Amino acid sequence: MPPRDANWIDGLRGIASFMVVCGHLCTALVPWLHSPAHDPKSAPHLFQLPFFRLAVGGRSAVAVFLLITGYVNSIGPIGKSRAGNTDAAFNGIARSALARSGRLVLPTMIATFITWFLANINAYHMTKHVDSTWIRQGWHRQEPTLWAAFKSLVKAEVETWTIGWNDYDGTQWTLHLFLEGAMMVYITMFATVLVRPKARLIVYAVLYIYFWQLGEGLAVGALKGLNITMGMFVAELHNHYKDSATSLLPSPVPALMIIAGMFMAGYPQDSPQNAHWSHVMQKFMKTITCQNTDVRRYWDHFGASTVLLGVFFSRNARRVLTSPVFNFLGRVSFPVYLLHNTFIKSVLTWMIYLPSAMNPPRNEKGEQMDLQRGTTTHVLIAIVVFYYVLYRTAAFWISHVDPICAKVVNAATSWAYGEQQSGGGRPILRNGHVEKPKTVLPA
Hints:
Blueprint: H1 8-29, H2 59-82, H3 86-120, H4 133-137, H5 146-162, H6 175-192, H7 197-213, H8 221-241, H9 252-265, H10 276-288, H11 295-312, H12 315-321, H13 324-331, H14 333-358, H15 376-417, E1 430-433, E2 440-442
């Protein structure tokens, strides 16, 4: 795998990517854990309790990704603006805005092609008959003709970025939000490069209030706008405090912020009224948000933002997130995000349901019933193997697929700029310049 500078934002992204996979595994195999308890009178399971439930919940991870998008894509322009180097700031914004689409769209197209190919060789046949509703909903038929298969591929590739849905991989619904969020950053940076930092803070405040009251739109308000704006604000803090940020607050304060953020990020996806603590959170958020808003997204935002700020001010948390394990998780986070649903519908499903598929259960009329998963031990072993295969494949992607995509994007942008093409390609996920020379942060 090519070398890459360790940084705490990479480690945070790696955790978020891992949480997304955990959340989808929970939805597929134990969806009842998304509630804080089975009913208001029942005792909760261990992984339904605050903090523990983060191990099987991935909703707040989407907020983390958007926070990072706002942070990484604005940190360079803000630094150049504060230094008075406005020409370099405008040049960086222009180049990033042009290349960003390719850096997101091209790998996503490849991932969609892979899941399309598997569907059309009938690799997902077993998913149609399993006892997991979420996996079964991810089934896609094998198209009857090659022309029909080609049209369905084009439709999926286009609609991922137009309506935010991919028939072959529903988990890609967030990707257009990341692209829109990056463009929102570039527009905001373009509009504020010439202003003083205090004036830019006012702009962030206005944007935040605007998106808060726009909360009835799940993707426009609390999910995208608030997190992107907060990410830009933290980038402003980075450029203001620089290396002194980790010594500003007494050491217990950032730790308490991280703990509080984790608690808020654990707000349940389903049935918050089943537990007192989550019911109180639900009622409180409804009093400060617009009518009929999805309050879950607001708690996701609060939780993820508080964790981000806690890590930003904590030297110890940054040290942990730059360790080799978290650095690796961060490097492979994007292909993990792109491929995990494909692997759940194929590798994991085959391992869990193959014994039942070899002897399909039938009812009294002889009709085939849903395939049944194996024992708990069988499922746990299958999950371990699934994670190993997923992360090994993601490492292969970073080593072999990523550089090819980078060369294609660099060649296209070089042609657009009328420049001579340089030798090597820059890794796709390295985007957005930080203050230190020749150091880059992935977006």
